[in-house]
Amino acid sequence: MEISNQSSVTEFIIMGFPNLQDFHTLFFILLLLIYLFTICGNVVIFTVIRSDARLHTPMYFFISILSFLEIWYTAATIPKMLSNLLRERKSISFTGCLLQTYFLHSLGATECYLLTAMAYDRYLAICNPLRYPAIMTSKMCIQLVAGCWICGLLGPMAEIILVSRLPFCGPNEIQHIFCDFPPLLTLACTDTSTNVLVDFIINACKILVTFLLILMSYLRIIRAILKIHTSKGQRKAFSTCSAHLTVVLIFFGSILFMYVRLTKSYSLDYDRALSVVYAVLTPFLNPIIYSLRNKEIKEALKRMIQKQKIFTNDTRPSTFF
After folding, report:
1. DSSP 138-150
2. Which terminus of the chain has fewer CB atoms gathered within 10 Å of its CB, N or C?
């Protein structure tokens, strides 16, 4: 990714929450605990699914990929946020800022596409159960995941290239908690209408299209569930997609208000709060939603712990009397 511009600005200062300076130590501890839980929770889910043969199904394959993705998604922003909470000068280089923005949007886009693929998987499983095994094969799952990653990683390239060519010659204070396109564009000392238009079109297509596809899938899923005659069958069918639907509503609800809006009249604190929701809280809630509300994952985790205990007992040296 070639970065070349004619800026006099070589670094940016990330302002974070300037009105809450006295609570930075508390925020650091809280954010650190959230980050550690997010990493550990997603690693556990990924490991449990990949190691338990009973969970080698398309639905759990997608969940494991989502957990893997969340690990890197949080790594794009939270470590730097933790560092800034401990430093008086909260600086980031020009190149580092663009890289953070790129990974935030590329991994975020990958999550949009992956959640869409998961909705399609649930649609096929509930609405076309007889054809489901023939359609959602291992090859199809791998192709869908590969497509999500490729489209996600290539998506923000045009925006990054356009921003890298903007001149930044004035204030260098980013009124946000991390680097992102909207606060960066406000610092450019030239007309950014083209960048704003490109940013809006890409985000609208990426977020709205995927969200509408997910919405259509779930409307058909709900219609199919309502046709099931027994309440037990309805609960069982809906339980397989309720966790995914919860994640979709939290994630898309925040990024829609952040990136797909015609007015910019919201306060800076409003934007910062929304950023915390999709960059911190959503990855934090994923392990809770997919583990505490999923009986099969909890049972697989118990089996893995029991196997570990048996292995430990078998390898313990014997004592002779």
Report:
1. HHHHHHHHHHHHH
2. C
For residues 92 and 209, what is the distance between their CA atoms, to the nearest angstrom? 33
Give me the helix-helix angle, 94-127 and 58-75, nearest 10°: 160
Residue keyed to tokens 């076309």: 128
Q: Indicate whether 9 pLDDT > 80.
A: no
Question: Which three-class secondary structure state does DSSP give residue 120?
Answer: helix
10 Å CB burial of residue 263 (0-12, 13-18, 19+) is exposed
Q: Residue 3 above 80 pLDDT? A: no
More confident site: 293 or 244 = 244
Q: How far apart are CA 31 and CA 25, in angstroms?
A: 10
Q: How far apart are CA 106 and CA 108, in angstroms?
A: 5
Beta-carbon contacts of 260 under 8 Å, excluding residues fewer than 6 positions away, are 200, 203, 204, 207, 208
What is the distance between the alpha carbons of residues 102 and 73, in angstroms, rounded to a whole number? 11
Alpha carbon separation from 187 to 18, 167, 169, 170, 305 (Å, rounded)? 18, 9, 8, 7, 52
* 275 touches 255 (CB < 8 A): no
In 3D space, the residue among 316, 211, 194 whose CA is nearest the CA of residue 260 turns out to be: 211
